[in-house]
Specification:
The chain has 313 residues and is of the alpha+beta class. The protein has a domain of 197 residues: Beta Barrel (Sortase, Chain: A), CATH 2.40.260. It is built from four helices and eight strands. The protein is elongated, with a radius of gyration of 32 Å.
Length: 313
């Protein structure tokens, strides 16, 4: 009888190991990717802010100043033609003038300056051109009228006023006509004050910063004596000294912190979305879409932040 030997058991075929799920990345790797994304977003925000500040205080700021001046000039010319240009603290309708409203046209032939003067002297108002200090009379009227302007930023309208020689002519056109002034002197902090005005006399004082570019070290004032006929002064409901600190020389706007915060949040969100889109779209597609958005938000943040800087910068 033949005995059959048992056949050896068949070897089990190896089971392939499951491929790793890319979505199930280890915790440290996820944290590393999140950290890189946040670092990239922070670098985008920093770059947008630096470029925004540089552009806002130079090329973009000068372009904005030129645009605002043209708009203000058209509005002032319209009001002068209709005889409704302001001659005091109130409008033709009797309302208080709003900050930024055009009130005068300033011309300094020796420097080639021709600027529309707005009502108010906050940092935001002075981005559009010189501003009239609201608690002083308008040019051409009795008393000391004060006009402030920036030294370097936003068109730098008052950058060279310290070079005005004694006897130089300044002309200011308001709703009461054109007033003529003659420069009587240039003074800096610590210099003696000009002589007290007599009854029915007028003076114009131009104020700007002094020092290197965008690094003011003080203020400089140009005093000019009214040589044309004194114009009547309407009743002034707001007397000398009532203005806020933000409207005085080298003042800053504390109210600008809220728009700075809101625009910064929008910029950070746009930077995070840009980094997320980078992983989905790729490099060039992301930057074509994201770069204009980041640049616009960077300019918005820097524009709001410049209101926190001295108004004569």
């Amino acid at each position: 009888m033949t005995v059959l030997s048992p056949s050896p058991p068949a070897e089990a075929s190896p089971v392939p190991a499951p491929s790793p799920d890319p979505a199930a990345a280890p915790g440290p790797r996820r944290a590393e990717r999140a950290g890189l994304a946040f670092a990239g977003a922070a670098l985008c925000v920093l770059a947008a802010l630096l470029l925004g500040f540089a552009a806002d205080l130079t090329i973009v700021g000068h372009l904005q100043h030129a645009r605002d001046q043209q708009t203000a000039y058209d509005e002032l010319r319209r009001q002068l033609a209709l005889g409704i240009a302001p001659v005091g603290q109130r409008t033709y309708e009797g309302d208080l003038l709003t900050p930024g409203a055009p009130v005068a046209l300033l011309r300094i032939p020796a420097l080639g300056v021709k600027e529309v003067v707005a009502e108010g002297t906050t940092s935001g108002v002075l981005t559009s051109g010189p501003g009239h200090r609201r608690d002083t009379p308008l040019p051409g009227q009795a008393g000391t009228s004060i006009v402030m302007g920036r030294q370097w930023g936003y068109g730098s309208p008052f950058n060279d006023i310290h070079q005005l020689p004694v006897g130089a002519e300044i002309r200011v056109t308001t709703g009461q006509g054109t007033a003529t002034y003659m420069v009587s002197g240039v003074r800096r902090e610590g210099d003696p004050l000009p002589a007290t005005l007599g009854q029915g006399q007028g003076r114009l004082t131009l104020i700007t910063a002094e020092g290197g570019p965008y690094t003011p070290s003080g203020t400089v004032r140009v005093d000019a004596t009214l040589t044309s006929a004194v114009q009547p002064s309407p009743a002034r409901p707001l007397t000398l000294g009532w203005i806020d600190e933000s409207e005085k020389a080298m003042g800053t706007e504390g109210a600008a912190w809220l728009p700075v915060f809101l625009w910064t949040q929008a910029l950070l969100l746009a930077a995070l979305l840009t980094m997320a889109a980078y992983r989905v779209w790729g490099r060039w597609q992301t930057w074509i879409v994201g770069l204009p958005v980041l640049a616009a938000l960077g300019l918005a943040v820097s524009g709001a932040a410049t209101r926190l800087l001295p108004n004569l910068l």
